């Protein structure tokens, strides 16, 4: 418990220091003659705004209810992209890992598809699926799928041959091997990828909204940029950051629930 509180304190301290630097840099001028002949802000408020203005704007948007609709759209797109992409990555990852011929046949195509820039795909998805939520979901799925797929594939392939041989010697069927050997091996790899996939699902939704939509946080950020509203841009980014942390905390809770069998790291046992 003390270790958790200490860690939380250090994490909050980092945030306070960064916000403090931002605040003082955007509100206190460096006197003339120190570096230049004219007084200046280290962080020009026109380009960086300031944290108090950003927090005030965010609070007002939530208090007036302006942001709730846009936030709901973005979170729905994120959730759908995360669920569909993660489920597809797990299923295809297991399939490829268990079917070596299939993996070898599709290997160049998987690598080729993964190498495609997602920003290039966004207009194509908008053309195919329209400017509604599904074009953003499709973009998010392409980001989430490959992260989960490669981790699950590697997790299954990393199963110890000795463990497999002993399990087969004890008479385990393929179904039992999947449940008691392959699945536990892939689970830690899968959850490791899910923490990253949460952020990428949100990135897919926001980038899709940014490139073409009529609602969502990406749309609001794009609108704010269009009128040089730096405070609005940073406010949208703040909301995104907070909800990524909330969603990732949920993933961590599920991970801890499903992986109670996993031994604690040696450093935490010391």
Question: What report would you give on this structure?
Answer:
With 270 residues, this protein is mainly alpha-helical. It has 2 domains: 1-48, no CATH class; 54-269, MetI-like fold, CATH 1.10.3720. 81% of the residues lie in helices and 0% in strands. It has 12 helices and no strands.
Task: Present the secondary structure layout.
Layout: H1 2-27, H2 45-48, H3 51-64, H4 66-98, H5 100-115, H6 118-129, H7 133-157, H8 161-169, H9 174-211, H10 217-226, H11 230-258, H12 266-269
Helix pairs in contact: 3-11, 4-5, 4-7, 4-9, 4-10, 6-7, 6-9, 7-9, 9-10, 9-11, 10-11
Estimate what percentage of residues fall within beta strands: under 5%
Secondary structure category: mainly alpha
Uncertain runs: none
Radius of gyration: 23 Å
Number of domains: 2
Q: For the record, give the distance between the C-alpha atoms at the N and C termini, rounded to a whole number.
A: 15 Å
For this structure, the quaternary state is: single chain
- Helix count, DSSP H or I runs of 4 or more residues: 12
H/E element order: HHHHHHHHHHHH
How many E strands? 0
Kindly state the mean pLDDT as a whole number? 85
**What is the fold-level CATH name, i.e. the topology of the largest domain?**
MetI-like fold
The CATH superfamily of the largest domain bears the name MetI-like
Main sheet record:
none
- CATH class descriptor name of the largest domain: Mainly Alpha
Helix content estimate: over 70%
The CATH architecture category of the largest domain equals: Orthogonal Bundle
Shape: globular
């Amino acid at each position: 418990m003390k270790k958790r509180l200490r860690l939380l304190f250090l994490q909050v301290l980092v945030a306070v220091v960064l916000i403090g630097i931002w605040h003082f840099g955007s509100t206190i001028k460096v006197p003339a003659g120190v570096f230049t002949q004219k007084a200046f802000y280290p962080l020009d408020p026109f380009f960086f705004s300031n944290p108090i203005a950003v927090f005030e704007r965010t609070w007002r948007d939530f208090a007036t209810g302006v942001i709730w609709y846009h936030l709901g759209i973005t979170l729905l797109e994120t959730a759908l992209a995360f669920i569909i992409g993660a489920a597809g990555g797990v299923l295809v990852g297991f399939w490829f890992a268990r079917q070596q011929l299939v993996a070898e046949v599709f290997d160049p195509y998987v690598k080729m598809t993964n190498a495609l820039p997602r920003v290039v795909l966004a207009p194509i998805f908008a053309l195919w699926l329209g400017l509604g939520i599904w074009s953003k979901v499709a973009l998010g799925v392409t980001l989430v799928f490959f992260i989960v797929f490669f981790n699950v594939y590697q997790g299954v392939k990393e199963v110890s041959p000795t463990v497999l041989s002993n399990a087969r010697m004890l008479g385990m069927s393929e179904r039992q091997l999947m449940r008691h050997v392959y699945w536990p091996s892939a689970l830690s790899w899968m959850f490791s990828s899910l923490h990253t996939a949460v952020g990428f699902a949100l990135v897919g939704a926001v980038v899709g909204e940014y490139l073409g939509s009529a609602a969502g946080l990406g749309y609001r950020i794009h609108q704010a940029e269009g009128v040089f509203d730096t405070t609005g841009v940073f406010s949208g980014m703040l909301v995104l950051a907070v909800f990524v942390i909330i969603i990732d905390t949920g993933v961590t809770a599920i991970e801890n629930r499903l992986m109670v069998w996993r031994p604690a790291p040696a450093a935490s046992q010391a």
